[in-house]
Specification:
Oligomer: single chain
Keywords: Cell membrane, Chloride, Glycoprotein, Ion transport, Membrane, Phosphoprotein, Potassium, Potassium transport, Symport, Transmembrane, Transmembrane helix, Transport
InterPro entries: AA-permease/SLC12A_dom, KCL_cotranspt, SLC12A_fam
GO molecular function: potassium:chloride symporter activity
Protein name: Solute carrier family 12 member 6
CATH superfamily of the largest domain: Amino acid/polyamine transporter I
Helix content: 40-55%
Strand content: under 5%
Membrane topology: Multi-pass membrane protein
Number of helices: 20
Number of domains: 2
């Protein structure tokens, strides 16, 4: 019986894992008489499963899945997630069929497809794969900026209070996203050896964050008493502008927002001063509610119905259009829907969370037994992440209040990340972990995409791409990198993560 590898050996191979798709010189150098690169001889776990796990789990899980569950409801939300997972599952089956149909060449997914099905078919798939990988980099970088500005340092907004105007938020995303892209571009330009050192850190952040979320669901079985939001009638309110959720005429209460002193008017008389108050404020009571009632509360049943709304609608408990459509009313601190939602839109937003299944096959040349490792490792990673996503839908639906689920940016609780508030032991574990893992995923996307473009150019299928065959003295595809950064910048300039996804 063969001796099993030591833990130290396993960790060493994982630490030396190269996240990038090999360059043309890596895969064809041996044909030109050059010494072939040293193989890592990675197994299924370190070579395929863990890299796929790292790439599949992305920013959408941390900052959009809770909102998707609240908007679509538990049942439709599950269908949304399950449908996306089924699409990538069938892709994994197809990839496995190619991987087991003869010798797997070094050079990643593109080489596998083009050498098995022909360069023309491979080129068509390769271009789509390249563009998707590049725009995924834009999505990750914008997502990282959203996490940083919304949940870590909102005071660093360059254009004013973005909580009052979403356009200010998107301008910040464009500016900071561009700055982050420049920094990431410099890292990638330095070389893949430098980038590969970040892979284990990002992987560790992803795994720890997911585990902490699951632990938090069950440690908060009876809810969290320290996470509450204010309601007026059936409307959820932003937490800014007041410190006391009360209608009383005291400093820091809602009274100062919804009422104003008037001269020669007859209305509410408080402290010998005449005030005129908003009609909705006068006719409805305020209440404080738990944002996370917990699984034992039975809140799951309130989160089953779908609540698709149009942009500008009020976030309310009522499903009556007369109640959630403003119709010219002054909404003041009431939270509004920031994007018109539908089943198709939610599928489009969530689907990028299921991609990343090519991470293992991209290093086919480093695998000891690619024919065995690629199907087993990729399928296991896809099923693992699908289980986490699908179970997450029901766990989130059973843990959060519905109004809070639909508060996309956590404005009702001081701008906190919803999934972080649920996690154990502290919200910062998820905030920092999701930030680092998201930046890491963006770096990997922008490392792999130029090499993929270079491989397509080398095949000569699309003549005007031949200029991107070039590699510098350090064997880095610099021209392809510059084009990739330019396309990624176009994605960042969209500004809105939902639209990019």
């Amino acid at each position: 019986m063969a001796e099993r590898p030591h833990v130290a050996t396993f960790l060493s191979t994982l630490a030396n894992y190269n996240v990038a798709i090999p360059t043309v010189e890596d895969t064809e150098g041996a044909k030109e008489g050059k010494a072939p690169p040293k193989k890592a001889n990675l197994g299924t776990i370190a070579g395929v499963y863990l890299p796929c796990i790292q790439n599949i789990f992305g920013v959408i899980f941390f900052i959009r899945l809770v909102w998707i569950v609240g908007t679509a409801g538990a049942i439709v939300g599950f269908i949304t997630v399950f449908l996306c997972c089924c699409v990538t599952f069938t892709t994994v089956i197809s990839l496995s069929a190619i991987a087991t149909n003869g010798i797997v060449p070094a050079g990643g997914s593109y080489f596998m497809i083009s050498r098995s099905l022909g360069p023309e078919f491979g080129g068509a798939v390769g271009i789509l794969f390249y563009l998707a990988t590049t725009l995924a980099g834009a999505m990750y970088l914008v997502g990282a900026v959203e996490i940083f500005l919304n949940y870590i340092a909102p005071q660093m907004s360059l254009y004013g209070d973005f909580r009052e105007d979403n356009e200010i938020m998107y301008h910040n995303f464009r500016t900071y996203g561009t700055i982050l892209l420049i920094l990431v571009g410099i890292m990638v330009y330095i070389g893949v050896a430098f980038v590969s050192k970040l892979a284990p850190i990002a992987l560790l952040c992803v795994i720890i964050s997911i585990i902490c979320v699951y632990i938090g669901v069950f440690t908060n079985l009876n809810g969290k008493d320290d996470v509450e939001f204010c309601m007026l009638g059936d409307r959820i309110l932003s937490s800014t502008g007041y410190t006391i959720c009360s209608k009383e005429n005291i400093n820091g209460s809602l009274f100062g927002i919804y009422c104003e002193a008037m001269e020669n008017a007859t209305s509410t008389n408080a402290n010998d001063t005449i005030y005129v108050c908003d009609d909705y404020f006068e006719t409805h009571d305020v209440q404080i509610r738990k944002a996370i009632p917990g699984l034992s509360s039975g809140v799951f049943w309130n989160n089953i119905p779908t609540r698709f709304r149009d942009k500008g609608d009020l976030i309310t408990e009522s499903d009556d259009p007369e109640r959630y459509q403003p119709r010219g009313q002054d909404t003041l601190k009431a939270l509004l829907v920031d994007i018109s939602t539908s089943f198709t839109l939610l599928v489009g937003i969530f689907f990028p969370s299921c991609t990343g299944i090519m991470a293992g096959s991209n290093r086919s040349g480093d695998l000891a037994d690619a024919q065995k490792s690629i199907p087993a490792g990729t399928l296991a990673a896809q099923l693992t992440t699908s289980f986490v996503y699908c179970s997450g839908v029901f766990l989130f639906a059973g843990s959060y209040d519905n109004l809070f689920l639909r508060d996309k940016f956590g404005e009702s609780v001081g701008g906190s990340l919803a999934v972080a508030l649920l996690a154990w032991p502290h919200p910062l574990v998820i905030v920092i972990g999701s930030l680092l893992s998201t930046i890491g995923a963006g770096i990997q996307s922008l490392t792999g995409a130029p090499r993929l473009l270079q491989a397509i150019a080398r095949d000569g299928i699309i003549p005007f791409l031949n200029v991107f065959e070039f590699s510098n003295s350090r064997n880095e595809p610099t021209r392809a990198l510059f084009l990739t950064l330019a396309i990624c910048e176009l994605g960042i300039l969209i500004g809105n993560l939902d639209h990019i996804a």
